[in-house]
Write a structure and sequence with these properties.
Layout lengths: L4 H9 L4 H24 L2 H17 L10 H23 L4 H14 L7 H11 L3 H12 L4 H8 L3 H21 L1
Keywords: DNA-binding, Sigma factor, Transcription, Transcription regulation
Protein name: RNA polymerase sigma factor
Family: Belongs to the sigma-70 factor family. ECF subfamily.
Length: about 180
């Protein structure tokens, strides 16, 4: 059963149906949010953890949702912030030089049974890992999610012009990287 954003918010807002509302929120958006996060953190177990943290944070802060965007846009914003924070913490926690961190994710792409895709797709994913996190995020939202720049702007709080420039630079870097291999 799918619920509208309004129905989910009503269920969460009522103390007697709060748990049902939370389950409806997760069921409605978990797959899409996981996909977004997975493209950023790459490793399945990490994506599961970040997805869980995203929904916990959303549930704890649902009263801050102002309905001036869709519930998905609000969740997306939380998911990207959680993903970027996770990547930053992981780098700091393990005192990894950035190259080692990306090398670990690249190795995961090459060896994990949880990563599907042909040679070209994996090559693209490896090229994406070389982009700065925020540039990779913009590329993922535009290329894989096919979100319009206006919606990406709402999610990221970045101007449309800056997003277009970021996407353009990402595409150029990917082209150079893919052609150099």
């Amino acid at each position: 059963m799918t619920y509208s954003d309004q129905k989910i918010l009503e269920l969460i807002g009522n103390p007697s149906t709060r748990e049902t509302g939370y389950r409806a929120l997760v069921l409605s958006y978990q797959k899409r949010i996981y996909g977004i996060i997975r493209k950023m953190v790459i490793i399945h177990e990490d994506a599961d953890d970040v997805t869980q943290n995203t929904f916990i944070k959303a549930f704890r802060n649902i009263q801050k949702f102002q309905s001036n965007s869709s519930l998905f846009t609000w969740l997306y914003r939380i998911a990207i912030n959680e993903s970027l924070n996770f990547l930053e913490k992981k780098k700091r926690r393990f005192f990894l030089p950035i190259e080692d961190h990306y090398e670990a994710m690249e190795n995961y792409l090459s060896s994990s049974h949880l990563v599907s895709g042909d040679y070209i797709e994996i090559k693209l994913q490896k090229a994406l890992l070389k982009l700065p996190d925020k540039q990779r995020l913009v590329f993922n939202m535009r290329y894989f999610e096919d979100l319009p720049y206006e919606e990406i702007s709402k999610i990221t709080g970045t101007s449309v012009g800056a997003l277009k420039a970021s996407y353009h630079h990402a595409v150029k870097k990917i082209e150079v990287d893919v052609q150099s291999e």
